[in-house]
Amino acid sequence: MEERIRKISERWFLVEPALFSIYCTHQLATNVLMDCPIRCGQGMVEYNPNIMSTFTDAELEEALRSEMIRLFLKHPYERQPENSLPEALSFGSDMVLGQHYNFKTLHFISADNFQLPAGECFEWYVDKLNEILRQSSTTPEKSEDDSDDKTDGDNQDESEDENNDGGNGNEGDGNDGEGNADNGENDNSDSGSCESDQNGEGADDGDNEASVGDDSQSEFGNGLGEKKDKNGFTKQDIKSARDHSALWEEDELKQQEINEIITSTTNWGSIPGDMVEQIKASLIVKLDYRKVLSSFHTSILSSHRHLTRMRPNRRSGFEQMGSIYELASKLLVGVDVSGSVTSKTLQAFYSVIARFFKYGIETIDTIQFDTKLRELETFKKASKEIKITGRGGTDFQPIFDYIREHRQYDGLIILTDGYAPPPKVDFPMRTKVLWICQGEQEYNEHKDWMKKTGKVCWIEF
User: Fold this and answer.
1) The model's pTM
2) What is the pLDDT of residue 290?
């Protein structure tokens, strides 16, 4: 499977430069535990080889292509309404993709499946889907007999049929599709997102793009014959949709990285014009460094183990000491105090350092540098008075040499204007690096070489 995907990426390098560029920003990995064929998020593109082994080459490429377009739209990294259901995120994203890209082998959820209008944005669909899916999960399902009794208007017989519902075993047959079509509760039973949404009659419908007899590959689920909810989905469909968006979370750094690819791309290959317009409309120019700091802090958290008599050992009980794991991080901040950095900028730099105490960090090691390193200081809280020394030229090499000799640090933040030769990092470095430039202009000027050693953002003040 990995070899097949590699061949697709090699072909993209020649004919699909936009897809190849976004593909290279993520790491490919297998995950046999997830219930969806492929998903993206958190810097990963994960696929389940057990599911995708049945895909043809065309279906495999289209599945991979759909995730790349989803990344271009940044659905896995931004624009997610708070407290959204994971299945609502997946379905909402599919609705946008399906309206602007003509997939030939994959069949996606459409707005018609939920009686929603076409042409709306991702956030709008997710909000509406949250309401519909939450209501669906709390509304008792009605059996076929129950629907028939309501038609007859006999309330007493209806109650008796409801009590005997569990034994009739007819919810999944072809008559169920007729009942839904008659009462209008589920107009989309013949045009659902997956093969499991189709009944016997749907296979005879010429307009049914994803019927049981169709060759098109469904994105979610394998639940043929399973009981469906009022929207026409099986439990397997919902589980697959939840898994599909399980890695989605806000990530300012990834947003910026994708935005840079969008702005620099001139050849969009086979991606149609209206989809390109949707992608370009998702651009967000400004980067909130506060969110970047929060994200960076989360990425450098390390787990420290402590022995304690207050907790039993998992194997021997209280005969041996148990363990407590505490999240902590060892952080070093390098502050550029060269002559090209103004006093106002230095104040902003130290306000960034003070912000880290709001994230629960108890101590921060700070070291000033110009052409050489100054004295190391350890801050336990935000300091009101800072003594600045140096004010000469700028050289980043000493601070990386310091990290090579002091490997206990989980993260290194460098606050600078960037005007110095790039450092040489010729040693394996486990310490994660974040460059914070003093402005957007400096960011645009130095980001290319800074990205070779870590993440990059800028301060706007």
Assistant:
1) 0.49
2) 62
